[in-house]
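R.M. (postdoc): so does anyone remember the format we settled on? I'll just put the structure tokens first.
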């Protein structure tokens, strides 16, 4: 099987030739450490470990405001992005940028800028079209993100302000979601009408934290679920999948995602309480599971602990398909090259069907 065939079979919750092995993010510091510990120079982990790679593309779903650098030091840069969000980014280390200010704070601010979310064919570049074609030719899974509506509203308003807005002015919050969803669906329909079809829509939206969902199930059902259902309908009518990346404890969220029509949930953070050994029997016949290999365990370097982590989770998740082998978030520099090599050795040994 090609990687694309292997992924698609797994996302259909059927058994491929072997369990897909993937990783979407290695920290730069991780690769630096591994090269010092013996990983060949001028190679990537995907090449060394024969990982199933994914081509992921993004579409311009922003307010299209002019980006602006506001301040810079030797260690960080402060800049405003195309949605008016001011980020502080560190220059010498890999870390999530800190959001420090927001242009859209009130309903009046939104009214001034909402028309900037208007559809425009120029939002889709020729590079996206070429990448979709090339991925199909090379046998790689191709996923695309037109912008997930809830996460876009949360980050554009700022997390605290957004959740307060959701509670006190849900109509304002709902209008932001609707405009973003309308734009994203329009871009996807444009691509499909042109004959450019990726394999999946993949949203990167951290709608949970370590203690559960950021909002109530009732709020999700009343304000958010229908937008996700629209995407699910579009995907399933066109032989595509709908995937969600969501950090945090997703155990309460998964049944709602199944109801909304999602095909797969990733990365299943172990430190937030998610465990594939429990989730597979509960939900594995209705949604594919992607990730959950605990990087804190790999960081110990203890082979007995690592073996238990890999083997027990693989044996629990593998039957019937529907599981993609992946870290429970990304691979940090606390994980040695030797530990990762051992993980891949076990994955190959126990991942065959």
């Amino acid at each position: 099987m090609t990687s694309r065939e292997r992924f698609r079979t797994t996302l259909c919750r059927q058994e491929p030739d072997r369990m897909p092995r993937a990783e979407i993010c290695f920290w730069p510091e991780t690769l630096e450490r591994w090269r010092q510990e013996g990983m060949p120079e001028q190679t990537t982990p995907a090449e060394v470990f024969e990982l199933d790679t994914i081509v992921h593309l993004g579409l311009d779903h922003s307010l299209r405001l002019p980006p602006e650098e506001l301040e810079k030091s030797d260690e960080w840069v402060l800049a405003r992005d195309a949605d008016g969000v001011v980020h502080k980014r560190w220059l010498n280390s890999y870390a999530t940028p800190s959001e420090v200010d927001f242009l859209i704070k009130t309903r009046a601010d939104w009214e001034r800028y909402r028309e900037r979310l208007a559809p425009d064919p120029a939002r889709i570049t020729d590079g996206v079209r070429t990448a979709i074609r090339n991925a199909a030719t090379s046998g790689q899974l191709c996923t695309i993100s037109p912008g997930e509506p809830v996460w876009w509203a949360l980050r554009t308003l700022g997390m605290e302000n957004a959740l307060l807005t959701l509670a006190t002015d849900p109509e304002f919050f709902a209008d932001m979601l609707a405009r973003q969803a309308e734009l994203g669906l329009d871009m996807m329909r444009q691509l499909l009408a042109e004959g450019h079809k990726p394999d999946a829509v993949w949203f990167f939206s951290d709608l949970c934290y370590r203690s559960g969902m950021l909002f109530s199930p009732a709020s999700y059902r009343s304000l958010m679920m229908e937008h996700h259902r629209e995407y699910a309908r579009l995907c399933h009518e066109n032989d595509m999948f709908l995937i969600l990346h969501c950090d945090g404890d997703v155990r309460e969220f998964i049944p709602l995602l199944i109801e909304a029509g999602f095909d797969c949930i990733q990365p299943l953070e172990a430190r937030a309480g998610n465990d594939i050994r429990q989730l597979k029997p509960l939900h594995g016949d209705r949604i594919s599971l992607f990730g959950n290999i605990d990087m804190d365990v790999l960081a110990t370097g203890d082979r007995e602990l690592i073996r238990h982590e890999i083997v027990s989770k693989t044996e629990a998740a593998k039957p019937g398909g529907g599981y993609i082998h992946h870290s429970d978030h990304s691979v940090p520099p606390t994980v040695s090259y030797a530990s990762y090599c051992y993980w891949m050795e076990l994955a190959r040994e126990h991942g065959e069907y």
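R.M.: ...and that's the designed sequence above, right after the tokens. Also worth knowing: Residues 22 and 52 are 5 Å apart (CA to CA). The longest strand covers residues 85-90.
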